[in-house]
Automatic annotation (TrEMBL):
Function as written in the Swiss-Prot or TrEMBL entry: Removal of H(2)O(2), oxidation of toxic reductants, biosynthesis and degradation of lignin, suberization, auxin catabolism, response to environmental stresses such as wounding, pathogen attack and oxidative stress. These functions might be dependent on each isozyme/isoform in each plant tissue.
Stated name of the protein: peroxidase
Keyword set, alphabetical order: Biological rhythms, Calcium, Disulfide bond, Glycoprotein, Heme, Hydrogen peroxide, Iron, Metal-binding, Oxidoreductase, Peroxidase, Signal
Annotated positions for site Transition state stabilizer: 67
Highest taxon listed in the record's lineage: Eukaryota
Cofactor mode of binding and number, as noted: Binds 2 calcium ions per subunit.
Cofactor(s) annotated in UniProt: Ca(2+); heme b
Enzyme Commission number(s) from the entry: 1.11.1.7
Residue ranges annotated for the Plant heme peroxidase family profile domain, each copy included: 30-327
This protein's record includes keyword tRNA processing: no
UniProt-annotated binding residues for heme b: 197
Family per record: Belongs to the peroxidase family.
């Protein structure tokens, strides 16, 4: 073959590789805004309306959706593995100790059923989880957060990884910072995400170690009687309705009051206290306590990073028929 022939073959090969690459890119676009605009144009509106209806009936659903996005997306991939039920061989993530207090998963199924009636087999449970969190945040007074979609659902639980990824409320602030950093969330992002403690409540199981056998001297003494009243037992029943509101001032509103509380030593969890007093986080806490717009800005950025943590897209994973079951178990 002459020189011109060899060159022509080489050009054709390069063209073929380029065409293949473009085809892969075209069929597997990854996350994008309005991913369902052609396949299910009403998807985000349906999720929004369902969240509003459910929130009107059950106010605490908003807190559940907000916790869901953290407990799912922070554990290696944002793929709705959190929603999977336990099987004979595998404990589901939602049954693990680190998921204590998570609930209202049935409402995710209600949203899924509404979407299946409109667009069967199109919208993933992982996108439902992320977008319901977005709507829940707005329902409790938080910012509207633009989020990309196009996630697909994982095939198995990641229960064995939970302790590696999810920080415990008793761990040092250094460990918490490192775990958030491993998924791309910096210190201001961490401080903003913990602002989620502005809403909802904490079960006595999680805070009695600060009350018994002796009261933690770092707690604001004016706040202790209320905590003791709500948590009268040193070994509370995990199934009992024994809670303390995270923020007694605005318990149903996501706002920067949390930061003022922890600066005043009224944080319920040890991580709240450390956040207010560690030299790496205290300046950010003080800034957020004074400036809610700054808090919302960093909170928005952190939620966006969290929601895009290593998603399954394109041909990876699946679109579950039912959010609590992988299709092979359906």
């Amino acid at each position: 073959m002459g020189g011109k022939g060899v060159m022509m073959v080489a050009i054709l090969c390069l063209w073929a590789l380029s065409a293949t690459s473009e085809a892969v890119t075209e069929t597997e676009p990854g996350l994008m805004m309005n991913f369902y605009k052609d396949t299910c144009p009403q998807a985000e509106d349906i999720i929004r309306e369902q969240v509003k209806l459910l929130y009107k009936r059950h106010k605490n659903t908003a807190f559940s959706w907000l916790r869901n996005i953290f407990h799912d997306c922070a554990v290696e991939s944002c793929d709705a593995s959190l929603l999977l039920d336990s099987t004979r061989r595998e404990l589901g993530e939602k049954e693990h100790d680190r998921s204590f207090g998570l609930r209202n998963f049935r409402y995710i199924e209600e949203i899924k059923e509404a979407l299946e009636r409109e667009c069967p087999g199109v919208v993933s449970c992982s996108d439902i989880l992320v977008l319901s969190a977005r709507e829940g945040i707005e329902a409790v007074g938080g910012p509207y957060i633009p989020l990309k979609t196009g996630r697909r659902d994982g095939l198995k639980s990641r229960t064995d990884m939970l302790e590696s990824y999810l920080p415990d409320h008793n761990e040092s602030i250094s460990v918490v910072l490192d775990k958030f950093k491993s998924i791309g969330i910096d210190t201001p992002g961490l401080v903003a995400l913990l602002g989620s403690h502005s809403v909802g409540r904490t079960h006595c199981v999680k805070l009695v170690h600060r009350l018994y056998p002796e009261v933690d001297p770092s707690l604001n003494p004016d706040h202790v009687p209320h905590m003791l009243h709500k948590c009268p037992d040193s070994i509370p029943d995990p199934k009992a309705v024994q809670y303390v509101r995270n923020d007694r001032g605005t318990p149903m509103v996501l706002d920067n009051n949390y930061y003022r509380n922890i600066l005043d030593n009224k944080g319920l969890l040890l991580v709240d206290h450390q956040l207010a007093h560690d030299k790496r986080t205290r300046p950010i806490v003080k800034k957020m306590a004074k400036d809610q717009a700054y808090f919302f800005k960093e909170f928005t950025r952190a939620i966006q990073i969290l929601s895009e943590n290593n998603p399954l897209t394109g041909s990876k994973g699946e679109i579950r028929k039912q959010c609590n079951l992988a299709n092979k178990n359906h």
